[in-house]
Design brief:
Strand order of the largest sheet: 3-4-5-13-11-10-6-14
Number of helices: 14
Distance between the termini: 32 Å
Helix content: 25-40%
Largest sheet: 8 strands, mixed, barrel
Radius of gyration: 25 Å
Shape: elongated
Strand content: 15-25%
Order of helices and strands: HEEHHHHHHHHEEEEEHHEEEEEEHHEEEH
Structural class: alpha+beta
Number of strands: 16
Oligomer: single chain
Length: about 500
């Protein structure tokens, strides 16, 4: 029986590994980061202090109504006659598994965050005209022309080349780049968003502005900022096909297009990505899903799963679990085990007199038989679970923040084979030994914990997902308001909640 099980499991992992190798033969090689070469020097850059002060975030040069306020079409809206899509209707009001609405408070600005200041470069009338055309067509990307001062830019173009045109075109271009590259949503409206986007480091605004004006290719420079993940293109296509009267659906498409801009433009050649409201995890190679896994995520409220961008640094076969003190002391487990020792638990009295309880490896371990280690301040990771029946629930929000993963053993073995060079035989033998074994990765993999309420499901069809944690509201509100100036804040400044409790 054991040999048969080993052979079956080994064959499954071998087939998976072979398929990955065929799709990505150069997996062992790291790809260079895009955008760091070919920018050259910046000869015609002037300090930002020479620019005319930008308006404050509470003002708008052209108060165009936001989605839902008026059915009037926006300039630059996508033309009709495109492909016909039939997106899934949006669900009703967001609710927790118990049916209780779970609105999230909007975080406060990060202390010390200041508005981003960009340089001013020289603009020709022709390049500024291309920029104006791009602004008027930006509705195709789910953004709003009025945010980028098209009237002021048009007036500056009419006045000809000079300081006024340089300052206005540089300002409009910088704001447009920031929104296309980093997202329009201010950090204060990104609830529990702790995934730092590296795109502004890899492709700084001033370098992009210099490239656009030197190469006289404003449209190409802006187009290069679009996320490469296929879902973004699908949402853009859906927005073009959705009538303007369907304001709720258009809102949903826009804010989820923006969420893709909060992530790295290129997620990498091999990565794991989970969409919390969908309760699914994907293993992807070059944007193609190779395997999908059902997940269990954090309960709404204090135990909600935060949004992270981390790296798989180790796989733990047959993990132990150190029981939190809230259970050891708060629920009296420590004293109970001292009085009546229970198989599978080890109790140790520490030097300070406290008790430490560690659940030993086994099928009943709270982490199951596999843990995907992705070190982060939130103590969030992917892991197996002994409670397999919970994966059959439609709404799977039961954890204290960690991501419980169906078929986690398969996933862990795959990571060990691809990331640590483990053979399939060794992976199976290590698992079957039943002993704790941590396997460090020699090649790390990105893992993204995301939150999308509208997009493609694991079958590739556009679908709406319940706003489990009530995180859509602040984003929609920010889209209905005038554009806020970007600041130096890179992630949410909310409390880091470290529960370290999978139960």
């Amino acid at each position: 029986m054991m040999n048969t099980r080993k052979l079956m499991m080994g064959g499954m992992i071998l087939a998976l590994g072979t398929g990955l190798g065929a799709l990505y033969p150069a997996m062992a090689q790291d790809r260079p980061i895009e955008g760091k070469q070919g920018l050259g020097k910046l000869p015609n850059v002037r300090p930002a202090s020479m620019a005319t002060p930008a308006p404050t975030p509470t003002t708008s040069p052209s108060p165009t109504p936001r989605p839902g306020a008026s059915p009037t079409p926006r300039p630059g809206a996508a033309p009709s006659g495109g492909p016909t899509l039939r997106p899934t209707p949006l669900p009703g009001p967001s609710a927790s598994p118990s049916g209780t609405p779970t609105p999230y408070p909007t975080p406060s600005p990060s202390p010390g965050a200041t508005p981003v200041q960009e340089a001013v470069v020289n603009w020709s009338v022709a390049d500024a005209g291309d920029l104006l055309a791009a602004i008027m067509a930006i509705g195709e990307e789910g953004l709003f022309p009025a945010d980028y001062q098209p009237d002021a830019l048009r007036a500056a173009i009419k006045g000809g080349e000079g300081q006024a045109l340089d300052e206005q075109a540089s300002r409009s271009f910088a704001w447009l780049v920031e929104d296309l590259r980093d997202g329009r949503t201010p950090m204060t409206a990104r609830v529990q968003w702790f995934a730092v986007d590296p795109d502004q480091d890899d492709n700084p605004t001033t370098a992009l502005m210099q490239r656009a004006t030197t190469n006289h290719d404003v449209p190409g420079t802006l187009a290069s900022l679009a996320p490469t993940y296929p879902d973004y293109a699908a949402l853009k296509e859906a927005l073009a096909a959705t009538p303007k009267a369907q304001t709720k659906l258009r809102d949903a498409i826009r804010i989820n297009m923006d969420r893709w801009r909060w992530l790295p433009r290129d997620l990498g050649p091999v990565y794991l990505i989970t969409n919390v409201p969908e309760f699914q995890l994907r293993l992807a190679v070059n944007g193609r899903n190779i395997r999908t896994y059902r997940t269990i995520v954090g309960k709404p409220g204090r135990t909600a799963t935060p949004q992270l961008a981390e790296k798989v640094e180790a796989v733990v076969f047959n993990p132990t679990w150190t029981v939190p003190q809230s259970i050891v002391v708060g629920e009296g487990l420590g004293q109970q085990l001292l009085a009546r020792p229970r198989a599978g638990y080890k109790v140790t009295r520490m030097e300070d007199g406290s008790l430490q309880v560690v659940q030993q490896p086994g099928n009943s371990n709270s982490l199951g038989r596999m843990k995907i280690d992705m070190p982060n301040p939130h103590a969030i990771y992917l892991h197996d679970t002994p409670s397999k029946k919970l994966f059959d629930a439609q709404v799977r929000a039961f954890s204290h923040g960690c991501i419980r993963t169906d078929r986690a053993v398969e996933l862990g073995m795959t990571m060990a084979i691809l990331g640590a060079g483990m053979s399939q035989e060794d992976a199976v033998a290590t698992f079957e030994a039943g002993k704790y074994k941590k396997v460090p990765m020699t090649r790390t993999f990105p893992v993204y914990l995301t939150y999308f309420t509208y997009g493609r499901d694991i079958n590739g069809s556009l679908a709406a997902f319940n706003d489990l944690y009530g995180r859509d509201g602040p984003v929609i509100d920010s889209f209905h308001a005038p554009r806020a100036l970007h600041t130096t804040q890179r992630k949410s400044n909310e409390e880091v909640i470290k529960l370290d409790n999978p139960l």
